[in-house]
Amino acid sequence: MDKTFDTIAIGDTIAGTPFAPTRETIREFCDASLDYNPLHWDDDYMKGSFGKTQFGGIIMHGMTNFGIITKMLTDWLYPMGGVHRRLETRWKAPVKPGDTIVPTGTVTAKKVTGKGRWAVIAVEIKNQHGTTVAQGEAMAEFPPAT
Amino acid sequence: MNQVAIDFWKDEKLRMAWDDIVPGAPRKTVPYVLTREAIQAYCRSVGDLHPLYMDEDLARASPHGGLIAPPSIHILLMFACTPIDDWMRSPGTVNAGQSWSYNVPARPGDTIRMDARALDKFIRKDRLFVIHDNVFFNQNDDVICSGRGWTIRPM
């Protein structure tokens, strides 16, 4: 049976699509986002120490995490007529070419307001080592009950 | 691959450093016409090929009545709507987190404008932080999305 707002339960999990960044996908994201910060393409720059941070090589854009979490949420919501309304994320660790990252979500709350029906979803991305690289919270709105 | 189409180093000296950024002061922005090609290039870059973004016929038959952009298209709009001397392009800027709210979807052909400013700046754990906020509007003055971001500024 297809999910609806009524059948969503606290603790329901959402499985996202694994994403395996490469130097080429990071470059593609540079072109698509117009974000050409040298953190993402300049090998010589990344050999050095950046303030207090030493990455040891180019890193994926943090906002790629945002994009793949969004895909997970919209893939889950669109079949239910749900609308992705909010996403808050913090980046916990860098992602590098060769990593494989997987987003997941867990429904933590449901709320019916005066004019809407809402779900709150905890979101997280882990890499192939089980390290959390991004964490946050999303909100989705669902059509009114008929 | 040390050559890119847009060189963030080139205008580095034109950009405000952390010391120069005034919380509350508006950032310069430029309107941007969002194209289907730009939306789909972004979608491919994050592996999101949903038909609402990619398939004209299916999107037309959907409640949206045509192609839309994914909510996270603000990732592109942030740079598309700012000039080359905007401080968000300073080499070494590290994105620490983001928070966005979504209203109406952006669509191909929309002329999008951005209202933006720094909200706050502070020092924490020996790092220089700025919080910025942005609101994107379409040509009908509908809010597409609004958001805040935390960046660590280069020293």
Features:
heterodimer, A: about 150 residues, alpha+beta, B: about 160 residues, 5-stranded antiparallel beta sheet
Summarize this structure briefly.
With 146 residues, chain A is an alpha+beta fold. Chain A has helices at 23-33, 43-47, 62-77; strands at 13-15, 83-91, 102-112, 117-126, 132-142.
Fold blueprint:
The complex is a heterodimer of chains A (146) and B (155).
Chain A: E1 13-15, H1 23-33, H2 43-47, H3 62-77, E2 83-91, E3 102-112, E4 117-126, E5 132-142
Antiparallel strand pairs in A: 1-3, 2-5, 3-4, 4-5
Chain B: E1 32-33, H1 36-45, H2 51-54, H3 56-61, H4 74-80, E2 94-102, E3 111-124, E4 127-137, E5 143-152
Antiparallel strand pairs in B: 1-3, 2-5, 3-4, 4-5
Question: Judging by the overall fold, what is the CATH architecture of chain B?
Answer: Roll
Tell me the helix content of chain B: 10-25%
| Biggest β-sheet: strands ordered side by side in the sheet of chain B | 1-3-4-5-2
Oligomer: heterodimer
- What's the number of extended β-strand segments of chain B? 5
- Could you state the CATH homologous superfamily of chain A? Hotdog Thioesterase
Task: Give the second-level CATH assignment, the architecture of chain A.
Answer: Roll
Going by CATH, the homologous superfamily of chain B would be Hotdog Thioesterase
The amount of beta strand of chain B, in percent, is 25-35%
List the helices and strands of chain B in order: EHHHHEEEE
Tell me the strand percentage band of chain A. Answer: 25-35%
